[in-house]
Amino acid sequence: MRHNLVGFLAGSLFGLGLCLSGLADPAVVLGFLDLAGAWNPTLLFVMATALTVTLIGYRMVFARGHPLWSSQFRVPTATAIDRPLVSGAVIFGIGWGLAGYCPGPAVVSLASARGEVVIFIAAMLVGMIAVRLMRERLPALPTGSA
């Protein structure tokens, strides 16, 4: 129960941060990507701030030796840059550039009930299900785990 509450609070804090920074608004993202037009540097400042907070936070948290409610940290161990990683990053970038949404801001924006957000979420879910089904049916496809 405690892990679910912590996850809910962390997700809520993340969503609040997305709203306050303006990243739930696809116009901010698309403005950042429009280098030849009316470029909006807001996303650059948000990313730089997030990176700074993350670097400091990771140092503080890992200095503790273990998480508050667990005996050990569970961090990803895969280090390979493989086809699933690169193709996923390319698809993510294309979708972000076309729609101005990535999964986090899209979920936050669902509260607006705008049609484009609902369509984006539906397309994202269809894509996630399609990849899972392809991996189950075609075991020769790499899973991306090392």
List the keywords.
146 residues, mainly alpha, 66% helix, globular
Task: Describe, in short, the structure shown.
The protein is an all-alpha fold. Helix content is 66%, strand content 0%.
Question: Layout of helices and strands, plus pairs?
Answer:
Layout: H1 2-21, H2 26-33, H3 42-63, H4 83-99, H5 103-109, H6 115-137
Q: What coarse outline follows from CA principal-axis ratios?
A: globular
Gyration radius (Cα, Å) is 18 Å
Helix and strand element order: HHHHHH
Report, as a whole number of angstroms, the end-to-end distance: 31 Å
Protein described:
It is a single chain. With 146 residues, this protein is mainly α. It has one domain (2-137). Helix content is 66%, strand content 0%. The chain has six helices and no strands. The chain has helices at residues 2-21, 26-33, 42-63, 83-99, 103-109, 115-137. The longest helix is centred in the C-terminal third of the chain and has 23 residues, at 115-137. The chain is globular. The mean pLDDT is 86.
